[in-house]
Amino acid sequence: MSTPAFAAERVVLKYGIFRESLSVEELSTFAQTGELSGLLKVNLALARQDPKAIRQYLTKPVKVNPVFLDKVLNSQIGNIILDQISQVTYTPSRTADRQALRAALVLSASQDGQVSLIEIIKNYPTNEVEVDGNRLESAYRQLRRLQTNLQDLFGV
Question: What is the pTM of this model?
Answer without folding.
Answer: 0.88
